[in-house]
Give the backbone structure.
Amino acid sequence: AAQGGQSALPFPKRAKTQHTASLANAVGAALGMSGAGVPKPIEVVTPDPKRLKEARGDVVEELPTPERQQKQMKISVKASVNDALPVKASAVVDAADAAGAGKVPIDLLGDRKLWSGGRHGVYAWMDESLEDRSAARDARLAEAEEGLVAAMKARHPQAEDLVVGQIGMPSQAEVVIVGRIVCEGLEGRLNERSMLLEGSRGGGRNVRVQLNVACCPELVAFPGQLVAVLGRSGSATNTFHARDFVPGFRVAPPPPVVAPGCSRLLHTLVLAGPFCRRDDLDYSPLAGALDHAAQAAPQVVLMLGPFVDAANKGVVAGEPVLPGSKADDVCSIEEVYTQHVFPMLRQSLLRLRNASPSTEVLILPSLDEALCFHPMPQPPLDASLGPSLGELGSDMLRKMGAKLLPNPAHLNIEGLRLTVTSTDALSPVLRSGLVLRPEDRRIERALRVLLQQRTLFPVVPRDPANISENRAAALDFPGGELPDVLVFPSATGTASGQFVDGRLVVNPGSVCRPAALGTFAEIWLTPAPAAEAGAPADSGSLLRRARVDIKSFSE
């Protein structure tokens, strides 16, 4: 029965149209018009969606879907570092490369147990307790104490009698203490007046003291940073007055010749996701970049996720629509991978392999991947996406002919040590409340402090938050040895390459920004020079041998 004078069920579209036609005929008759004079209304029937027909068991006629033509992308150089360094514009594939024998040797560094496990290649992480996380951070601080004290003593070689003190213990003489920078307010930002120093459970008994850094000539500080300070305790022992501040481990100068075993031009192309704009699923920019790779024939192609961005509007709404489909033909997120992204990727990589069989393709997952819920360190993409896509998706990934790496990945490529991650490592340091004195060269000094901390993500509380504390050693540079090249996309600043203390840091940008086309990077390393009399002392350094081109897209 109707409630409130309204029908309980609306008219079906066809019934409503017939009802309107009857009403029109009645009005015409009242006006003395014949039924023939009244135009017949047009019946408008909205077809049921494909999925509804399938649910009713109707026979759905499958129409052939033509192959969608990708948009042609124009690629141009946006910025360069060391653009005067001569490199060949396109590689000539010789007989050895044509047979695939010219592949560069690539070794994955670090302990594989940190990012893998016995559950289909992934490890269990949701049962990590607060006590376990705290103990892991404390163990890292205790392990770092000796190296930080050595860094302070190296800064003051004339003071041979420097004494190592404990946080919270009174001392009339100057002492060196080691701890972690903590912000006094839980919700506030770090500044010089809100800076606390927290000790380890062993050396510092987990005590916190106020840190007065007014007398320190230079300062680089952020929450979670492991530091050494030189000074004296106050009379109440709850304040430590520092006169020198060491922001991390000592950064050793790079070797005279970087990658001495590199005997040929090493060309690397870096593509970082998202690979489509936020309001569509058009992967033409990625296809265009891989076509460019097929022409340039680099030795290495690095592809950093996300391949399906969790922030894509269609993904967020749960109603993604593939390009070329009708607006109401909604598919699942799993189908975006298996019916759209992976087939396109496989075709593009096949063209790349045909053009340059020696090119190695390396793929890293991302924290922003739509169906990848694993924290860092992330297992390779086939294991990370396996629970969501099943064996079909994992099998499609393995058949692409690419090497699937964890995130982050520490690599040795023909003697060149390279650390790469798909996660922004710069922005967390800058937004944590970075305190600088003097306040200049903010980005450069934030990059340098990553090298001094010997890890990619030192901020505590963790940023990004989804990090497995028990396996955070995978984020550290293996063996404490700094990489020659550090690669990660960052939303801070512009895509660029920058030399910091003899190391090269590359921000390739992302192939697509939320509403615009983005950038990617190409890196060249010239062969190691032969030892010659009269050659410059730095002829083997990255500053003399590395070139970075940032390239942009246009339609």
